[in-house]
């Protein structure tokens, strides 16, 4: 999330902590980052172009994941859907490096990595109506009340995401934090471009789709007694594709 007020720096949903890479992660970074990875700052300042068709060498359905973490589910979903191109945006270098290792191990060619602020990328470079899906899995819940302004899923960001989806494209969210799940549901339900795909009897939630792998993080949440909530919203069909978010 990014929010600008007069005289103050933007508020982001992440804190960039630099961490040392393991030997294996560093080796993967040295081998593959220049091929698979790009910096969001370079895309924003025009140093490189945002051009998924050129990155993947084809035109295919495109899904963007905000916050891929250590890449366990990201790599699995890309491997399971070879006809879909995947972009993972993350700020944590060890997570990116770990995902590079997974890409190498699985021989994936349909997954590109971006390092930096996904919201800035969506706002400045991703064309309206160009994404088939956006995934936000287990974003930082910022549990302290004074920090909740940092939560990623808020009306401005959801409106931005919705504007970048094609008609029929989906926004899939998951969290193990109850009050954040409720906030996500309320915010998405309030976005005019989106409709909830859940049945009326489900209170707005969907069962975890089989194609979303259960990660070690999610397994730990269940062991610790935290329920996991999935939400799947769809971009409404009809209406203009113009970029209504500035």
Compact overview of the structure:
The protein is α/β, with parallel strands linked by helices.
Task: Summarize model confidence as the mean pLDDT.
Answer: 90
The dominant shape is globular
* Class based on secondary structure composition and strand pairing: alpha/beta
Q: Name the poorly predicted regions.
A: 1-9
Strand order of the largest sheet: 3-6-5-4-7-8-10-9
User: What's the gyration radius in Å?
Assistant: 17 Å
Largest sheet: 8 strands, mixed
* Content of β-strand: 15-25%
**Number of structurally distinct domains:** 1
| Secondary structure: number of strands | 10
The arrangement of helices and strands along the chain is EEHEHHEHEHEHEHEHEHE
The percentage helix is 25-40%
What's the CATH architecture name?
Answer: 3-Layer(aba) Sandwich
CATH superfamily: Vaccinia Virus protein VP39
Number of helices: 9
- CATH secondary-structure class: Alpha Beta
Counting copies of identical and different chains, the oligomeric state is single chain
CATH topology: Rossmann fold
Written account of the structure:
- The chain has helices at about 25-35, 40-45, 50-55, 70-80, 95-105, 120-125, 155-165, 180-190, 215-225; strands spanning about 1-5, 10, 35-40, 60-65, 85-90, 110-115, 130-135, 165-175, 195, 230-235.
- By secondary structure, it is α/β, with parallel strands linked by helices.
- The strands form two sheets. The chain has an eight-stranded mixed beta sheet, sandwiched between helices. It has a two-stranded antiparallel sheet with strand order 1-2.
- The longest helix is centred in the first third of the chain and has 14 residues, at about 25-35.
- It is globular and about 50 Å long.
- About 35% of the residues are buried.
């Amino acid at each position: 999330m990014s929010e600008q007020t007069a005289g103050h720096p933007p508020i982001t949903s992440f804190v960039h902590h630099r961490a040392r890479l393991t030997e294996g992660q560093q080796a993967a970074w040295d081998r593959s980052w220049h091929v698979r990875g790009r910096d969001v700052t370079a895309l924003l300042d025009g140093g490189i172009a945002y051009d998924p068709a050129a990155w993947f060498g084809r035109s295919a359905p495109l899904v963007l994941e905000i916050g891929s973490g250590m890449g366990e589910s990201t790599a699995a979903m890309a491997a399971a859907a070879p006809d879909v191109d995947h972009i993972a945006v993350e700020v944590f270098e060890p997570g990116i490096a770990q995902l590079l290792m997974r890409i190498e191990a699985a021989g994936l060619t349909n997954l590109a990595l971006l390092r930096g602020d996904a919201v800035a990328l969506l706002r400045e470079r991703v064309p309206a109506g160009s994404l088939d899906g956006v995934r936000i899995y287990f974003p930082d819940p910022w549990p302290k009340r004074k920090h909740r302004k940092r939560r990623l899923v808020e009306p401005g960001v959801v409106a931005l995401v919705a504007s970048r989806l094609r008609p029929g494209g989906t926004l899939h969210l998951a969290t193990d934090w109850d009050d954040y799940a409720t906030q996500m549901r309320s915010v998405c339900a309030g976005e005019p471009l989106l409709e909830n795909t859940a049945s009326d009897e489900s209170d707005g939630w969907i069962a975890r789709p089989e194609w979303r792998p259960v990660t070690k993080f999610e397994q730990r949440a269940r062991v610790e007694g935290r329920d996991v909530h999935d939400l799947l919203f769809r971009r409404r069909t009809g209406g203009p594709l113009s970029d209504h978010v500035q």
